[in-house]
């Protein structure tokens, strides 16, 4: 393995007009640039989705509020959910995977670079199509309308009779197209990881991030496809007059629920497994210890992958399934707690006795551990069928899944941003601002989502436009809304910190964290070809071996 | 860099990984299988649930000739690939073209069946649940056959121009995976639509 680079000639490295730079970004097939495009796209949608969330919180701050109309409120929660899952969480994780996987396995690019670019542009086009509904929802009738059927779009609400105009069509087609992009990205992930590893990197020596992305990629193949199939059926119903979900012609609304949640629940693990991957890379480096229990971590991840396909109907306990189905899905859902528990123990085991460096990435990881634990515990509460009958469709559920998606996934993502920012930009971020972001976000997160459980327990249903005073919900809603202010300021600090550090940050050098995986052996940012010489590895921590030839990490 | 038992040079020469084309195609097949499974489940779930006619029993005829053609095309594509592996380019062109023709016959037969159902029997995708699920499932498969035929035809054109040589065999093998998959799916669709559902 070598850390040298190839010198560029002046013609290759000289200044270029901005139009050439834009052209090179649009036509790029370089996995690092596509990764950054994915991340930038997601950050734009994150801001849009965040604004939608803020509008809902302002509407709910006091009873009988008239900040927005009921119709607009329905559009807001539909667009917020759809945007955050399909156009923030998925692409941002694909972006990090795209950027990091080839670097970590010592490859020069993904297995199919052009498919990679194609997948990105499909995802981007799907997002644009979804948002075009704001101006094109009623087509020629003028006033636009975003979809307002909720992010899981239960039948028969999506039938042409109940969703007049084209807003639901934009939702269906946007997700269909971006779903095909996701499948393309997943094919690429799996093929890259299985076929492009550098010499010596056997499956057992891959960094955990790569392993977890392999599991995630394989899951996406089976997770997104049911959604794609269901969207094709919905499109057939809406465009061709089919009857799949048309209850008046004998079609079944419950079938849509099954199809949607066969996608919908494993999707949560598709999102959280890359978050686990970030934690599994960051915690060891900032604890100065190799990861504890590597094989068990891999096995637990694969276990989660399999079990996650047998839990979907816990979203449907209130539909009225028989008691065998209820017991089965309650049991499988609780079983998920076992491998995830193992993972939490292993991260704690990695930190235990380590020499902890409390930089911003580690702070986000530690918060992740606590919050993910609580999210898992409320998940087990909701897996108990009788408890679920009481609280399904209440704010308790909303609080639970935001604990998973914000408290776990978004926190892991922020940690990943700070950890790999020096590699992507070549410069360090501002540590003080990073810690300020962390503390403000922790405070805001807990204000919003801890106190959101309580109105749920008090019976506040999700998706209501407004509520009556005197039910004990006012204070909790007020606190939740106040929390969003903290979160908003924290995110602004985050954006400012990264944007400013891109130009004014301290030069990072190849390896600012004294880390161990291959991406830190190239320059920051890495050259287009990644490695001047394809590395050869003989352990799980190749860069450690290079830095410590007297103490190689051979037999792990 | 130090290493225990293997020096890097021997390691590099022994380093073998699966071909990315094959892995990629298998992944695509996995994703496509999941899509087909959902459509098959919907078909089975809706068997006998139509609230108006016509029923499958009344209108469906078992497409034996088309099925024989499509399944035979799996054999001919296999023969084409074993010919190119043994550098017999003439035989390769013949078997490859035969594969295309057999696939095309299948597609034409499907088209004629649909025409008969629509024109003579009045069964469209809007008629009832049977029509919706039937045209969706068979149509999804037929669209995969169409994609496969375009790929087969492209290769056939290059083969008759003399551009396909034995070093292209791994790529053609990837294409053959897809074609075998399309055939295997037909076995499922045939069983569900024409045997179980009838």
Multimeric organization: heterodimer
Going by CATH, the homologous superfamily of chain B would be Cytochrome c oxidase, subunit III, four-helix bundle
Which architecture name of chain A does CATH use?
A: Up-down Bundle
- How many domains, in number, for the residues of chain A? 1
Q: Please write the CATH class name of chain A.
A: Mainly Alpha
Number of strands of chain A: 0
Structural class of chain B comes to: mainly alpha
Strand count, sense and closure of the main sheet of chain A?
Answer: none
**CATH fold-type name of chain B:** Four Helix Bundle (Hemerythrin (Met), subunit A)
Unreliable spans of chain B: 1-6
Strand content of chain B: under 5%
SS field, number of helical segments of chain A: 19
Overall domain count of chain B: 1
Note poorly predicted spans of chain A.
none
The average pLDDT score of chain B comes to: 92
Give the overall shape of chain B: elongated
Category by helix and strand content of chain A? mainly alpha
Shape of chain A: globular
Q: Can you lay out the helices and strands and say which pair or pack?
A:
The complex is a heterodimer of chains A (556) and B (198).
Chain A: H1 10-13, H2 18-26, H3 31-59, H4 70-104, H5 113-136, H6 167-195, H7 208-240, H8 253-287, H9 294-307, H10 317-320, H11 323-335, H12 337-351, H13 360-383, H14 385-391, H15 395-425, H16 431-450, H17 453-457, H18 474-504, H19 542-547
Helix pairs in contact in A: 3-4, 3-5, 3-18, 4-5, 4-6, 4-8, 5-6, 6-7, 7-8, 7-9, 8-12, 8-13, 8-15, 9-12, 12-13, 13-15, 13-16, 15-16, 16-18
Chain B: H1 8-14, H2 20-45, H3 56-59, H4 64-85, H5 89-120, H6 129-160, H7 169-196
Helix pairs in contact in B: 2-6, 2-7, 4-5, 4-7, 5-6, 6-7
